[in-house]
């Protein structure tokens, strides 16, 4: 018993140590990647649920990580959040996207913001600075935030959202339906958009509970005067149900995967043509 217990502890330590080293290695690579501007920004179209015209693009970071090879975006974000590198990384994405999307007059730009960035007292000033530098119009910018931060720091979140709204920037609640945002908070935050998470969408239309969850979320958000975006739309059948249920905008592989700027430009140009 003693032996096996000792053995287990040793195995656990080794795994822990390996994880820590792996993280340190990636942290260092992220630092180099930032210095060498090795990160890419991809764009995924968001379409009007009725006309299917592209109304916005969501900026999503991609890391080709040379020479080691590409690495999963979610993992990059998680590590960057732990190390604090999310601050320069987030600003890099915003700056790059504002420059690349600048001249596409009718298309909004949606950028993801981590809770740590939103919590940073200098964040509003940094955003303003990027907008000034790039001449990107604030009314075309939307920031996406997830529920976690709202629950832990509701007063700060409300204050920051108000400040952004005063600047003309809109705020979307991301991944709605995965957390526990109360109806009361949803109402007082002042979001312009609510993005319904892709996980319940997979069950449409056959799974009754998933369908009820999605239509309930749409009705709730619309009742509070917010526009509703569904993400992760992969099939025409889902798109039809969503638009019939009152969803305003759709996003997902059905309309386009996240893609490099040259590809999304071709798409936007085609979609806006008469
Ligand atoms: P998210 O904000 O919820 O972004 C949507 C994710 O769903 C993206 O994953 C996108 O590629 C994927 N997706 C879009 N349509 C479909 C679909 O039809 N089916 C399926 N299965 N997936 C779809 P991605 O690009 O890997 O990003 C993962 C997460 O990483 C994002 O989730 C976001 O939370 C975070 N992230 C990405 N870029 C940034 C960034 O610049 N800053 C911050 N703070 N977070 C970022
Ligand atoms: Ca998002
Ligand atoms: Ca999302
Ligand atoms: Ca997400």
TrEMBL record:
Top-rank taxon: Bacteria
Sequence ranges assigned to domain EAL in this UniProt record: 23-272
Record protein name field: Diguanylate cyclase/phosphodiesterase
Organism for this UniProt entry: Sphingobium xenophagum
Interval of the full protein contained in this chain: 372 to 645 of 654
């Amino acid at each position: 018993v003693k032996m096996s217990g000792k053995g287990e502890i040793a195995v656990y330590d080794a795994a822990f140590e390996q994880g820590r080293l792996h993280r340190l290695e990636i942290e260092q690579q992220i630092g180099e990647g930032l210095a060498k501007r090795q990160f890419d920004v991809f764009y995924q179209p968001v379409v009007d649920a009725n006309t299917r015209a592209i109304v916005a693009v969501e900026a999503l970071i991609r890391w080709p990580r040379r020479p080691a090879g590409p690495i999963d975006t979610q993992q990059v974000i998680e590590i960057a959040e732990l190390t604090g590198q999310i601050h320069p990384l987030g600003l890099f994405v915003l700056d790059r996207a504002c420059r690349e999307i600048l001249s596409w007059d009718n298309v909004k730009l949606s950028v993801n913001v981590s809770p740590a960035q939103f919590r940073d007292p200098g964040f509003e000033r940094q955003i303003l600075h990027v907008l000034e530098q790039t001449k990107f119009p604030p009314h075309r910018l939307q920031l996406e935030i997830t529920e976690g931060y709202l629950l832990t720091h509701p007063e700060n979140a409300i204050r920051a959202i108000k400040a952004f709204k005063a600047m003309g920037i809109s705020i979307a609640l991301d991944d709605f339906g995965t957390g526990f945002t109360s109806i009361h908070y949803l109402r007082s935050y002042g979001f312009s958009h609510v993005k319904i998470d892709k996980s319940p969408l997979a069950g449409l239309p056959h799974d009754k509970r998933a369908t009820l969850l999605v239509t309930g979320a749409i009705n709730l958000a619309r009742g509070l005067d917010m526009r509703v975006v569904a993400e992760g739309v992969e099939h025409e059948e889902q798109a039809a149900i969503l638009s019939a249920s009152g969803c305003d905008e759709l996003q997902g592989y059905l309309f386009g995967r996240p893609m490099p700027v040259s590809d999304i430009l071709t798409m936007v140009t085609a979609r806006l043509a008469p």
